[in-house]
Request: fold
Amino acid sequence: MHLLPLPARRFAAWCAVVLLASGVGYVGIRLCSELRTAVTPVLLALLGTALLRPLYRRMVAAGVPRSLSAGITCVAVVAVVGGAVYIVVAALIDSGDQIVAALRSAARGVADHFGAAGTSLDDLASHAKELLTKFGGTAASNVISGVSVVGETIAMAVLALLLVFFFLRDSYRAVAVLRSVAPGGSADTLEAMARRAFRAVEGFMRGTTFIAFIDAVCITVGLLVLDVPGAVGLGALVFVGAYIPYLGAFLSGAVAVLVALADRGFVIALWALGVVLAVQVLEGHVLQPVIQSRTVQMHPAVVMVAITAGASVAGILGMLLAVPLTAAGFGILHELRTRYETVADGS
Reply:
């Protein structure tokens, strides 16, 4: 090894470090995948704790007991999430017939302009309910195989909710536990890294929720003015989609534009597209820099790569968890860099 020049030895050392880190990361991802029914609720509970901790702290500061404060916070989460799901489902059910009728009308218009090709589209729209019925029958025949998936999802949701309760109630003990398991004299460093990572996730969740709320309100108001069916449900969909940066807003906005096109025609769809684009410009140039500039700074390219990696590992759930976990990683790296720079300056 000493026969190699110094740059080659440094390159070899970095390659060994990268390979070792990649191997550890791969094994960790595989273990998380195998233990997903336990790991997923923990990660979701950490995100929920980061989002709900300010409300919990206010109640504790007001003199409410810790257990009662955590219980009230969890009940509020169930009410909000259940209400959002109910609004989305009810809005889609109420506007379903309108959307199908609008699709038929659009198909007839295409038939008038394009003849046989349009007639085929008209036939497809006319038999939409029949196709949906056949699809429903096929899905019903496989309902037994899907029971385990539904049961697993419900179990993970309940476990995540219980973990949120315990994480909120016993959060004051976390630092002591973390310091007790820290090896050697690394307790201070480990505590600082954990605090920085949690602050990054907390800031990301709080900022994203506020931005999602503003996006949903603006788009809902715009769709109501344009008289687009299911405007409230589409606004709720925008709110949920905002937790997946860039991609979620794009998909939920595209759904709103398609619904406007199906029910209200091309001109109203253009207006709906204008509303969605205006909200996205407001978010990208005003809300994101102002709200999240004090918490997490990540380049959009890093966010997109993280979302893509999360999708390849765990699908939609991975897309949801990718950005906050990346924010936590950036927080840890920032803390380590700050500490090493302080040590280097001191020496």
DSSP finds twelve helices and no strands in the chain. The radius of gyration is 25 Å.
